[in-house]
Every structure is written in C-alpha cells, then in structure tokens.
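User: Can you predict the 3D structure of Metalloendopeptidase? Sequence below.
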Amino acid sequence: LNIPSILQDTVKKVKKNFAKLSDVAKNKLLKICEKKNCKEEPAEVKSRRNDILKAEYEFQKKFNPSLTLGEVESKFNAMHRAKKKFLEVAGLGSSVTPHDDGTFGHDNLLTETQSNSLISDLTELVNEVEETLEEVTGTATGTLGQVTSGLTGLLGKKKRNSLFFEENYAARWDPNVPIPYTFDANVALNEQGMVHNALQQISSVSCLRFQYVPQQPNTNHLYYTKFSTAGFCGLSYIGKVSPANPIYLSFTCPDFTGVVMHETFHALGVNHHHIRGDRDNFLTINWDNINPQQYDYFAVSDSKQFTSYGVIYDYGSIMHYNSFVAGVNPSVQTMIPKFDPASNTPLMGQRKGLRQGDIVLINKMYCKPPACSDANIYCGSWALSNYCTSNQWVGTNCPKSCGVC
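Assistant: Sure. Here are the predicted structure tokens for Metalloendopeptidase:
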C-alpha cells in the first residue's frame, strides 16, 4: 500500500519500541545484578517449572497416550530460549539468565512454534539492523536519514495484526459457533460456577458464545482445570491451540471470576495490556526495581504483530498487570502511571470486571463482518494519533480501528 509520508513518523515511533532497551535502563538492570546473582535459578522457580511441566504433561497425555515427557519439555525449553533471546537483544544476555519457570510473561504458555517464531523475528531484526547499518556506514554519502529510511523499510516487512498473536502465531476461534468448554474432575461445583459466570459476562458484551460440554469433546475446546503452585493465579495459552486449550486456575486469588476472564481472554487471543507498543507513553518503567530475570514481563511487543485497534490505553484493563509485579523490592512500584498516578495506580491489575476498552477490543477482534478490516498493521496507532478524520487515507483504509464499521 502507498502509505502517505506524513504517517511514517507514527510508524517510526511505534517500531522503535520492540525489543528496545535504552542504555540507561540496561545499566540500571546490570546494577541490580551487582547485588544479586542474575544467573542463579531460585529453588521456587525450579519447583514451579516442574509443577507446570507435570500438569501440562498429564493434560496432553489425555489426547496423545504415547506422548513422552521429553516432548513436552521441548516446548518449555523453547519458551526459555525465547526469553533468552529477548535479553540478548536488550544487551543483557551475558549477564542475565531468565527464570526457567515454564511460563512466558508470568501467566502464558507458548507453543513451540510460537516460541520459535519469536526467536526468528528477534534474530531477523538484529541481523537486518546490522546489515542496514553496515551498508549505510560503509558509504561516504551515508546519512542519518538513510539509516532511518533503511530501518523503516526493514521493520515493516511482515504484516501481522492486532493486540494478539495472529494466525501465524495462534488461531482465533470461529465466532459463528459456540466455543465448547469443559472441566477437569478436580474443579469443584462452586469453582465451576466462577467459570460459568466469567464466560457469561464475556458473552453478554460480545458476539461470542460458550457451550458447556459435560464430557470432553473431540473438537477444539477450553479445558478448565485446577492447579496450584507458589505465586500462581492462572495460566493459559495465547489463542486457540490444538487439540484443546488448558486453562490452569488456582481458585485462590482475590476477584477470581476476573482472573478467569483474564485467562480466557488469553485463550481468545488477547495479550497483556502493559506490553502494548505505546505503553511508554503511559507508564514509567522503574528499571531500578525490576528483577532482570523477569524481563519478559516488560518487553514491549512487536509492532508488526500487534495493534491497539485504536482502543485507548486503560490502566484498568483486565489484561493489565499490577504496579508492583516482578519487583526486587516487592513494596516498590515497577510500573508507574504517567497520568494521575493516585487514581490510576489502584486500577492496575484489577480483576473485578471487564472495562470498556476490553469490551471494544474483543468485539473488534471477533464481531465485525469480514469486510470491516484494516489495511495496515499500524492503523491502530494512526487512529490513536487522531488521523481517522484528518487523513483521508487512514479514514478509508482503517475502518476497524477508526470505528466506522
């Protein structure tokens, strides 16, 4: 598409955030590693990995009796490699070993394909940036403008969509048929009630429908199971995975119906709110207090894979983490709102219910007709920059993000 040049400034601002860590932030994290061993694997991390590995192995065995523990462990190893790659790109790879706890971003599971795709994207990013810099600096006429132009071109090669992993990462569910769900026998009736309630709340504000199936179906479905390990509320894959989506829940955290909605949103394909490409416009990340081994909690998502769909940033999104997560000192904030911190800090991490932005996002993802689609991954960013009415190209090519269909 022939994108007007005036829109490129927004693209550049959004692109630069992916896998980017400033020298100031990097030095702050390295300073933390002077006081703590950033390569040591704490006992509770090892224990959590073993617990999750066992649970995932037992679940997958229901569908593939010949499955080996090594095959499941291969997926966990791939997630850990992806976390290592983020640290490497951030310039921390030689000093920090990420927690190998069997998760990504604290409450996500990734398929091996998803992990390898992230690694590939990060590797491609590094290689292409290096090649572009070599080409530009190797010529006498090389200018900063040429570098910027080169980076703009190489970072926009792949078209992926929305604030969720798109089809090459994870499939979405068919909104035209009810999504089946069932329970493991370990989920008590009152706990099942929390899940029923959570799904009803999602259905009440969207086109999505969920169908309880007492017996485990042969088709793709959501499978809610009780699981408990230290510091755990829930765990889910991002997007529809085969043969079924396990959603692991402790049923012990406050506002647990909201926890169920958070994890179910992951299964529907929604990623965390605080890693949006524009999050640095709204949050100050306190790198002085972040555990470097949990860097994957904060690494901004790839702007080629994610868009806000024009949904305004909301500190109270049910997909946002709280402001103290992953702190070396748990009583000191790791994420601080740039606007009205007194009011917005308490909203962060809330699980009391869906916010209007959550509702708008899930409806844009699932409930628009096929003809209502954005022509470019950056439509969400342009919409938030008020180009929908001021730029004819955006108004015409970004109907979903601009809310005109």
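The chain is about 40% helix and 5% strand. Residues 291 and 326 are 6 Å apart (CA to CA).
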